[in-house]
Design a protein that fits this description.
Blueprint: H1 2-19, H2 33-40, H3 52-72, H4 81-89, H5 94-101
């Protein structure tokens, strides 16, 4: 009887530990997750990393490429820096663009 009682107590403790909410962050909206992580000081649930650095590096590379095209007067794939500049500064009608997709 002793071994079965010990086994039952052990299983009961494991079940309680499995379903216990002690030390866990309550279910919150992801927008407020960072605030709750700071309050409860849990390092294991880190915020996901963004892609800002990669996008910034890509933009800097493209801008440098554009400036070098402009200074040297070269064309890449039959496109000059003047054509790129015209395409970027061209005023587009939002209704026309959305009309093509709707």
């Amino acid at each position: 009887m002793e071994t079965s009682e010990k086994r039952r107590r052990k299983l009961l403790e494991q079940t309680r530990a499995l379903y216990s909410d002690k030390g866990k962050i309550p279910a919150v909206h992801p927008r407020y997750g960072a605030a709750y992580h700071r309050i409860y000081e849990q390092e294991e649930a880190a915020m996901p990393k963004g892609t800002f650095g990669i996008r910034l590096l890509l933009c800097c590379f493209l801008f440098t490429f554009f400036v070098s095209l402009d200074r040297q007067g070269q064309e890449v794939m039959d496109v000059s820096s003047d054509q790129i500049q015209e395409a970027v500064t061209q005023d587009t009608d939002l209704a026309e663009v959305l009309g093509n997709y709707l």
